[in-house]
Amino acid sequence: MASNRVYHQTLSIRNHLAMSALSEESRQIVASLAHRIGANADIAAIARAIVSTLQGMDAALTPIIGHQGGAALYRRSLQLCTSRDPRLAVIYDRAQVAFDLAALKQVLLEQSEADALLFGEVMLTTFYELLTTLIGPSLTARLLRDVWETPLSDTPSQENSP
Amino acid sequence: MSTKVTINRLATGVPGLDEVLGGGLPEFSFNLIAGPPGCGKTTLAHQMMFALATPDRPALFFTVLGEPPLKMLRYQQQFDFFDNEAINRSIRYINLADDTLAGDLDEVLRRIVNEVEIHSPALVFVDSFRSVVLASQTRNNPNNNLPQFIQQLGMLMTTWHATTFLIGEYFTETETNPIFTVADGLIWLRQSVQRNSMVRKMEIMKMRGQPTLPGLHTFRIATSGIKVFAPAAFNPVEAPLEFPLQRLKMGVPQLDKMLGGGLPRGYSLLVAGPSGSGKSILAATFLAEGARNGETGVIAVFEQRPNHSQNATLATLIQSGQVGLVDSRAPDLSIDEVVHLLLSEIYRLKATRVVIDSLSGFEMALAPTFREDFRESLSRMVTALTSAGVSVLMTSELEDRYTDLRFSPYGTAFLTDAIIVQRYIEVESRLLRIMAVVKVRASAHSDELRLYRIDDNGLQIGEMLSDQEGLLGGRPTRRRLGKDDG
Asked: What confidence score (pLDDT) does residue B282 get?
């Protein structure tokens, strides 16, 4: 069931990211996001999963490259997303001006589930690829390993919540 | 048993640096790496860090204002020593830009101490320290007492058993900077630029309790990282000559006779002569004779287009590995680098015979900044090689002047133990070659000027021209015998 969902989402991002071959890392990012969202994929779960992933990346990178370095990567990723996926340009623009991740979450909550999910997939993949062009695939994987490595066998936290 | 403290010396992992430091880096020392932008400070720090850090003895690399960490990671990755797997395991990067921007040194110190207490690092790097200094000047803050900051940092890091490096730039040596007093070690990197040549040099201005090697030491940065060319260590107590002298055959039997039975082992021999006189052929014969007797050799060629392939004998010897080739096309060579290259080949092959062909090419290959000291450098090289126990043959281009008897254009003749001179002379409208042994230290040798020719088998030494005189003038005349005068 979970793998079906992943497969479906992989297809969705593949359609939208025709310009770049879907790498193993992208697959992992998409799978990890799906895992964070959990079984109940409503807009709240999707927004929460995207923001928590971004927080995880921020926590991994900020100590090393500083707040400003992290912020610059974030903004550049959004800008690349716009040219990649013009349909969602409005969301990217709003995300650009969002003050922080809490504000981004608000923006996402106003979107349809499909759009928010697509935003998350494109945004996280783009961020990862951007970092790869700067410091290479192996160091990128090394730094962000803990963010993606959510074993699929784990029970999503949502299912434990009352 | 001694109750005195033992200071461990850490092997830095930078080739040549431990020698220059006088035996490695003192553990728990507080050091400054200084120098102008682009001189290799951050690279030096990284190379040491990757060599020394382990999961049990990790390193913390604090980035302050200066090179953005993302770029640093991007560029440092190009070096072979950079190991991605070490990041976040034995090496941790910590960005202090925000704290430094605030300009409060107390806060910067608190952050550093906090991280050090969490991770208990064996190594701490702060890059670049200059921005800390600048930050301290930005605000009129009563907490910004730089000397106190450095004093405390030095004290805390040592107490926490961390060997520390502050990386800084633009320090002038004359400036009285508090850091110079507090630091146990000052490693200064420089770039000497002359015309189109650039040479990197390193100086250990201070290293507490260590017999560092004084002066400027050249280094190079390649993909393998930094390599320092420490001057060759040589034994100040030279072994006395042993009699009878052991001698090496030159491969030209007549020449061996002229030398008094061959070239004494461990001697340096200068072969001086004009272009085309057969110096390189003699050098190749010298190596071939060694190979015939089971000895190995090393040849250093300093020509823009090495023509060793033109000499079939030599090419075969190099091919078969009996002769090692040092053919550095690297620009801006230093004498120490050449000695380093030669010695490593000598040790690799356990070589006994070394040829340098030629000194003129060697001088050209050196960076301009070293040419002024050519004589001194050459002397150091000859000493380094002969104290390694090898016999050295050096060729030297000699412009034929015919008015004076000169052996080398550098006044280097005194440096060598033996000298062979080759000249052209004109006899009956022919250009003939003559050769003489001018000097063999502590040995009898021939005083004859002998004709010789070059054929497919090398140098063939002939007779003296005893009926001619004025050979060294280049235009000898037939000697008038007394009885004909009457």
From this structure: 94
**CA angle at B118 for the pair A138 and A63, rounded to the nearest 5°:** 40
Mutate to test the interface with B, among A58, A133, A139 (most CBs of B within 10 A): A139
Measuring CA to CA, how many Å separate B311 from each of A56, B255, B283, B351? Answer: 67, 21, 11, 20
Q: Which of B234, B293, B230 is nearest to B263 (CA)?
A: B293
Q: Do B94 and A136 touch (CB under 8 A)?
A: no
Kindly tell me the burial class for residue B343, based on how many C-beta atoms sit within 10 Å of its own C-beta (0-12, 13-18, 19 or more): buried
Domain ranges for chain A: 2-152
pLDDT in tens, A11-45: 445 444 444 445 788 888 899 999 999 988 899 99
Instruction: Report d(CA B144, CA B158) in Å as an integer.
Output: 22
Within 13 A of B351's CA, how many CA atoms are on the CB side?
A: 31
* Pairwise CA distance, residues B319 & B150, whole Å: 58
Query: Which residue out of A135, A142, A144, A147 would a mutagenesis test of the B interface target, given it has the greatest number of B Cβ atoms within 10 Å?
Result: A135
Tell me which residue has tokens 């003895």: B57
Query: Lowest mean pLDDT: which of A86-90, A115-119, B78-82, B250-254?
Result: A86-90
Residue of chain A whose alpha carbon sits nearest to that of B91: A64
What ipTM did this prediction achieve?
0.73
**φ, ψ of residue B145 in degrees (nearest 5):** -105, 95
Q: Could you tell me the pLDDT band of residue B238, with boundaries at 50, 70 and 90?
A: low
Tally the C-alpha atoms within 13 A of residue B20's C-alpha that lie toward its C-beta.
28
Q: How far is A62 from chain B (nearest CA, A)?
A: 8
CB pairs under 8 A between A and B: 52
- Asked if B290 contacts B296 with a C-beta cutoff of 8 angstroms, the reply is yes
Measured in degrees and rounded to the nearest 5, phi and psi for residue B356 equal -120, 115
Q: Give helix A89-97 / helix A101-109 axis angle, nearest 10°.
A: 150
Which A-chain residues 50-109 have CB contacts (< 8 A) with chain B? 62-69, 73
How far apart (Å, rounded) are the C-alpha atoms in residues B325 and B297?
9
pLDDT digits (tens, 9 = 90+) for B412-443: 667 889 999 998 888 888 889 999 998 898 88
B9-10 and B30-34 beta bridge pairing: unpaired
Task: Round to whole Å and give the CA distance between B298 and B293.
Answer: 15
Q: CA–CA separation, A37 vs A44, rounded Å?
A: 9
Q: What is the pTM of this model?
A: 0.81
Rounded (5°) CA angle B119-B122-B123: 100
pLDDT at A119: 92
Amino acid at A95: A
C-beta atoms surrounding B255 within 10 Å: 23
CA dist B211 to A44, B13, B183, B186, B203, Å?
A: 68, 19, 17, 14, 13
Q: Of B73, B84, B95, which has the smallest distance from its Cβ to A63's Cβ?
A: B95
